[in-house]
Amino acid sequence: MVIVVTSAALLATTVTSSANSKYAGIVIDAKTGKTLYSSSADSLRYPASLTKMMTLYMVFEALESKRISLKTQIPVSRNAAAEPPTKLGLKPGQTLSVETAIYALVTKSANDAATATGEFLGGTEARFAQMMTAKARQLGMSRTTFKNASGLPNGDQKSTARDMARLGIALREHFPQYYQYFSTRSYTYGRTRMSNHNRLLGKVRGVDGIKTGYTRASGFNLVSSVVDRDRSIVAVVLGGRTGASRNAQMQKLIAQYLPKASTRGNGIGIPETGSAVIVADLELPKVGPVPNLLRVGTNRIELAYATASAKPVTGRAALTAKLLEQKVAIPSPAPAYVPSEDVASAQGSEPSIDPVVTASTKIDGWQIQIGAMPDRTAANTLLDKAKSVGGNRLNGTEPVTIAVNANGAQLYRARFVGFSGQSSAVAACSSLKKKGFACWATSN
Questions:
Q1: Cβ 270 vs Cβ 170: under 8 Å
Q2: CATH 3.40.710.10 in the chain, residue ranges
Q3: What is 293-442's CATH topology?
Q4: Residue from 24, 40, 5 nearest 252 by CA
Q5: Cα four-point dihedral sign 35, 39, 42, 48
Q6: Which CATH superfamily hosts domain 3-260?
Q7: Average pLDDT over residues 191-213
């Protein structure tokens, strides 16, 4: 199965935590779950790009449930495009397929692709990180907290060697049809050939994945899966001082503990909870993040974005029935909702206006609303996406955000204002719905 090894300042045959304060490591027999080796395996460490293992777990889960396909296009926000290397060099407004994102994460460990994927699946990267952490708990990763989709430095994003080993095994056991991506040696994107950062692939017998990681705070990390004849292990090395020493330590662990692994057993059998962390009962929108839910008051639940057919489900009874029919969990709360004509009365108060963004904008007359997001940046990103595909229908209008407090949650409505009348506003909505956006027109 998967071997996760943490590199450290490396002794000749065995590793001790005194060799390197950042070091942690573990070797798990993937057939029985027995711990064959452990050093600071339950101590908190920074996972760095090992984080992308969970990002990919969430992608594979969405693929398996048919919420997305390998050809689904992921939009790239300004936030994603601005991530530091390593990266693909994606541009705001660009899209990439889910499969391209998978290859980019597995080989180049591209941060821009990881962030775009997180924003797409979670609505915002912060929400996606919450989903990742919730999934970690479901998998038994009790000491892991995620704060972003890429593994870029964040002092609160921590895990352990044991948790990373468990995640590696879960990827292998739960998604055998997708796990093969981790063995990709290289991938060509445009004219650029990206080599896998895992140098043990093709070099060490039996290694079939899985992921490397590095930041200055974490040191050099590696999770490896080894399957050789009738034995299988997962090894983790965290905190290596160099990539070479990390790899050397992993090789030593494999050589020393693979022969001690059992030849019998059917795997650890990490439970699949069967409950989705996100609510995506319908087909993903063509533009925008995965639908999420928010309770508004006590009698209303609404989807965050329209479905591909532009028919959002509104009303608690109708939506609850549909979710129960598809056996999808209803979280409370989630960060966004689909606006509807009577949402103001459901909230019980009129929204306040964000003075920074809209103070100079006349908001009387006809407007359209395309969504509500948990932060202003996300709302502006959604407006940018709509603007890029809205064409002439949005000429002469102004994108604005409106701050709303909905049941204690701060949201930002994304609107275009300044339409000449009802017909132009409705026509703009009709055009945006064809592009996959939720949309409704209002005269206030």
A1: yes
A2: 3-260
A3: Alpha-Beta Plaits (3.30.70)
A4: 5
A5: negative
A6: DD-peptidase/beta-lactamase superfamily (3.40.710.10)
A7: 92
Question: What are 148-176's pLDDT values in tens digits?
Answer: 999 999 999 999 999 999 999 999 999 99
**Is the overall model pTM greater than 0.70, yes or no?**
no
Q: Which two tokens stand for residue 388?
A: 């890029």
Residues 6+ apart with CB under 8 A from 324: none
Residues noted as catalytic: 49, 52, 109
Of 294 and 233, the one with more pLDDT: 233
Neighbours of 205 (CB within 10 A): 13
What's the angle, vertex CA 430, arms to CA 429 and CA 434, rounded to 5? 110
24-33 pLDDT tens trace: 999 999 999 9
Q: Which residues of 236-272 are buried (b: 16+ CB within 10 A; e: fewer)?
A: bbbbbbebebbbebbbbbbeebbeebbeebeebebee
Q: Which residues contact 281 (CB under 8 A, 6 or more apart)?
A: 291, 313, 322, 323, 326, 328
What would the pLDDT profile of 57-111 be if each residue is shown by its tens digit?
Answer: 999 999 999 999 999 999 999 999 999 999 999 999 999 999 999 999 999 999 9
The CA distance from 294 to 180, in Å, is 36
Of 63, 148, 153, residue with least CA distance to 114: 148
Best CA proximity match to 338, nearest among 376, 377, 381, 382: 382
322: left (phi over 0), alpha (psi -120 to 50) or beta: alpha
